[in-house]
Write a structure and sequence with these properties.
- It is built from eight helices and six strands; from the N terminus they run ββββαααααααββα.
- By secondary structure, it is mainly alpha-helical.
- It has three domains: about 70 residues, no CATH class; about 30 residues; about 80 residues, DNA Binding (I), subunit A.
- The longest helix has 18 residues.
- The protein is elongated, with a radius of gyration of 32 Å.
């Protein structure tokens, strides 16, 4: 316990700011009194207060950014249900007002990220087929795993044109996971069809 010299009230130690210059390591004023004193000084010394704040911001820029991002993240997490409708409405309005810009960005993204576009298409297709398990897969990792060879004809496949074949077809409740996918030529994949499971297919562990 400590008595504030301003309001003369006994308060717990956590109600005082730390001050290493004092014997007990605490300010003489309690937090409310100290805040009121600081606020009064800032109002009467506006230019000095602004200069001090500006100097602090310059010397602690990264710390302020981290603290702001953390506070923003916590606020958004605790107010998620409140802000989601507003965010969706704002995004919808932006897309409506900038429809040509959005189309151009989408076209550029599809051209720059063909694998991601194909991945999205395969995931949607698997969900439409009611696949029991649908996971995000790495096309290039599967290509490397299979050494760039078609699992049906055993010949090399171009990295730009290869397709992924479901060993157990989606129509037979196959999963959309890496273990159930293999590299194949588009022509081999289409000729195989989805109605049966050829005996020569190897199921990966």
């Amino acid at each position: 316990m400590k008595i504030c010299i301003k309001c003369q009230l006994p308060k717990e130690n956590d109600q005082f700011y730390p001050n290493r210059g004092h014997r007990d390591g605490l300010q003489s004023y309690c937090k409310p009194c100290d805040n009121a004193k600081t606020k009064l000084w800032q109002e009467t010394n506006h230019d000095k207060a602004n200069a001090i704040q500006a100097r602090y911001r310059r010397t602690h820029l990264e710390e302020i950014r981290v603290r702001g991002r953390r506070a923003s993240s916590v606020w958004h997490h605790t107010n998620r249900e409140k802000i989601l409708p507003k965010m969706r409405q704002r995004a919808k309005l932006y897309r409506k007002q900038h429809i040509e810009v959005m189309r151009a960005k989408n076209r550029l993204y599809r051209i720059s990220h063909p694998d991601k576009r194909r991945d999205g298409h395969e995931i949607r297709r698997a969900r439409i087929k009611n696949s029991p398990i649908v996971e995000k897969v790495d096309r290039q990792a599967i290509y490397e795993r299979d050494n760039g060879k078609c699992h049906l004809c055993k010949r090399r496949v171009s990295r730009r044109t290869f397709t992924l074949d479901h060993l157990i077809p989606l129509s037979r409740n196959g999963n959309h996971v890496s273990q159930n996918l293999a590299v194949a030529h588009r022509s081999c994949n289409e000729q195989r069809g989805a109605g049966y499971i050829p005996a020569q297919l190897r199921l990966l562990p």
